[in-house]
Each structure stands twice: as structure tokens, then as C-alpha cells.
């Protein structure tokens, strides 16, 4: 993209004001900071301006204008991502969809809802609940993340073991491509064997092919009286053994884990231990339990796992409120450590290979990070692990990132041997771009580049993300 002088910038922004309301084009420093970055704090935001279109036609006009003037665009949702995919640090124009936040249609027969891309995840979940249904893709950032951003990153979250990823719930998309074309993809159909399904190219594309403006999503029935158990686990080897036993007998909707070190940070924020015994690791699992039908069975499974030495203590929720409090022990981890500017690795491997990978990485981190605090947590029931290295207060951010990046080479090489992915659900963006070759070989990346060229021939859509 071409750098512009101040007079050229003024002319460019005046041109945008011809089809965007002046109040929806922001150039102030506060907006640049707010909209120019995501939850990643490794990059200094420096956008040219922030545009908040209110209609699909305005988005289309903006993309066409950007092509004519070679303006780089960074699509922006709730900016809750952790890979730098929504960062605008090189004079790009941020395109925020937050004004396009309406639920447009609901079909009770199809159990589907159509909404604009700027719809907040929790607003959609609440709407579904009002209809007696559920949108089950769920995560801690539900109150600020946008549906468009969820789709652009193929968000996963805490209930993938039962409900899958965002991809599994998208039945239709409207997108404005990097060429400025509006595509209406799949139109909410369950079956559609009429050639290439372009919808799936945009799911997980991180805004590099175009801008998602509308989505049609499936809904499902809500969980029937879910119970939550938190279990104390003495070592890593017991985690998957417990999973195998519980999954074989209960209808699990979640199977999460976190370390004692992670729990301590949450406890500092005013929460309480789930039980008196402190253990190196904890499992949080949720299962349907209408009218307490499976309580006795869950307790029997608990006793069996205790006899095997896989766990040493535990608690089962006795009320909806207690279940929410137990969930906070897991969901509040990310917020509780944010002040430490953690360097995050979000990796995945096939579930059957989790124990071997865990053991190898545990030794690696102990050896390479002797002076850093390393926290483990994640969606272990779907093979997704989050590794957070906390920055020492006295260490410069750049130095810290450099040290962590050097060890990431060893970590991802280990992951590659186990057939895993460098990014399970946070995307590639900027932070994982240098390591993409550990998951995608050169031939595959060549096809990815070719696809981008088709949809974004001038390279205006989120340039520099995923690959250069």
C-alpha cells in the first residue's frame, strides 16, 4: 500500500465522506487507539482513520473506493482476538461493523436466525434464549465479541466437545469481497451440492478475502439442567483418563482444564477455591442432568477415578448460581492475567495425542522458561491447549516477546511432530505468521496465496495477516 502525504490523506478522507456520514469517519487519537488494536498488546496501533459503515452498500462502496485509491482495510469486530489480526499499525483504514448490529430475521421452523456482522455474541445468545432455543458457540468474550469476528476466526470456545466450532453453525453468509462484489453464499440451506461452497473460505479467513456483513446461523435446544463438576487432578497423565471415563457415561457439553498457577490469579480477584485441597491441575466438566437423573452416576464415576489415583478431590454444583461461580474459575483466567501482558500460545492436536504432547511440552517449558511464570489452561476435551507466559514487570515488552518467540520455535517444532496446529482458535494474524510453516507446508500456502489473489487482487484486505 502507498503511504500518503497529509494533503493526500485529507483528500482521501473527504472522498469517503461523500458516501459515509461525517460522524461515522473518525480520525481522533482515542478512536485510533480503541479501534486500531485487538487484545494483543504487542503492536502500536496507527490507523489512517476509522470508518463505521451502517449498510451493506456503504461497505461495498468503501471497498471499491479502497481499490481505486489503494487503501488498505482492516475489518474490525469486537477486537477480542489474540493474534493481532485486527491490528492496524501501518496507516490502514479500520472498518468497524459495530453499527451493523441488528438481528434481521428468525425462522422458528428452520431454527435459524439472520443477523448483521456487528451483532454482539451475547445479544444473539439472549435472542435465541427468548425463543426457547440456544446459540451454543460460547466463550468468555461473549459480551463484546461480534458474530462477524467469530466467523472470520472460526471461533471455538468452551463447548466444542458437544457443539463444534462456529463453522458448524453458519448456514449462510453475505460478504463483500476484496473486489467489491457482494456474494450471498448458501442462503441458509442445509443441503446444497451445487459446486464449491465459498462460504467456508470466508470462515476463518481473518478478513483477508473480504468483509462479512451478514450471517444466517442455526440454533438448537438449550441444555437441560446442566451440572458442573470441578475435579482436582494430581498430574497431567490423569486428565485424558478422566475424560475417557466421563465421556463414555455422561452427555458432556464441556471438558476444560486449568493449572493451580492459573487458579491463583483468579483467586486474587475475589473468587474462592472450589474445595480445600490444592492440586497441580483441575478439570471443569459440564453435563446435562435433568431432575438430577445422573447425579448418582456422576458420583460413582468420581469414586472410580479417585480409586485409580486420577483425581484427589472435587465438587459438583448444587444450584445454577454455584454452576456459574464454578465456571468463573475457568472463564476469568484470561482477564485475571491481562495485566501481566501474557505471551499466548493457542495450540491443538488430535485428542488421542494430548497426553504425549502435554508431557513433552511440560518438560520443554520447564527447561526454557525457568524464570517465567507459565500458566496452562484450555479446552482439553477437543485437543486445544492455551499456554500463557507472563511478562516480568521489569522486562521490556520487546525483549519479552523476543525471548518467547525464540522458544516458540522449539514448541512448534514439537507440535509439528505430533501433527498439531500452531493456532487452534485464535487465528494466525501477526503473532503466529512467522510460524505458519509448522502447520501448513509451502505448497498449501501457495494455494492460500492464490485464493487471496482471486478475491482480493489489489491486496487491500487486511494485508500482512496470515502471510505476507
Automatic annotation (TrEMBL):
Transmembrane segments: none annotated. GO terms for biological process: respiratory electron transport chain. Keywords: FAD, Flavoprotein, Oxidoreductase. Residues 43-222 form the FAD-binding PCMH-type domain. Signal peptide: none annotated. PROSITE patterns: FAD_PCMH. InterPro entries: FAD-bd_oxidored_4_C, FAD-bd_PCMH, FAD-bd_PCMH-like_sf, FAD-bd_PCMH_sub2, FAD-linked_Oxase-like_C, FAD-oxidored/transferase_4, Oxid_FAD_bind_N, Vanillyl_alc_oxidase_C-sub2. One of its GO terms (molecular function) is oxidoreductase activity. This is FAD/FMN-containing dehydrogenase. It comes from Candidatus Competibacter denitrificans Run_A_D11.
